[in-house]
Every structure is written in structure tokens, then in C-alpha cells.
Predict the structure.
Amino acid sequence: MKNSTKQKFNETDVQHFYRWLNHGQDEYTEIRIIKWPPPGEVKQFWVQNEKDFIKICKKWSGKRQVYCGLNPRFREGGTNEDVARVIVIPFAL
């Protein structure tokens, strides 16, 4: 029997995470897909709903590193100037 550590995509967890973000209907959520190890191609997507968020995460899960912007954007863009409002400030202890 082959030993595999690959995890199965958990759509419910992704759905809960998207809802936790609490981005508004008129706001964009940024998703970055990063090829690993570096140097790798970076793809960016901006979504405005849960269905598209789950679809992109599912497509790339297990194939690339998937990262999500915590703060909503008011337009499609990956810079600080595109942030609609700051709702999360991550930190490490």
C-alpha cells in the first residue's frame, strides 16, 4: 500500500474561511496561486462571491500554494492602494 500524505480538499473548511473573511458583496477577495519551490510563477485572481472562491481554491489545491488576501479590495489589484478597508492584521508571537 502506498503511503500518501496528500490531503483531500475540504470544501466545507474553505466555505467557512470565506465566510469568516466577511468581505462585502461589492468587495474583491484576492487569491494568489504560487508555484513552489521558488522561483515560481504567481497567478492572481479576484473574486466577489463564495462560489468563485471555492472553485479557484479547489482547482489549485494540491497543485500549488494557495494564499488569500485577508483585507477586502475595492477593485481588482494587489497593492495597498487597492485595499477597501483593514479588517485583519496578522501577527506572530
Remarks:
- The mean pLDDT is 89.
- The chain has one domain: 11-82.
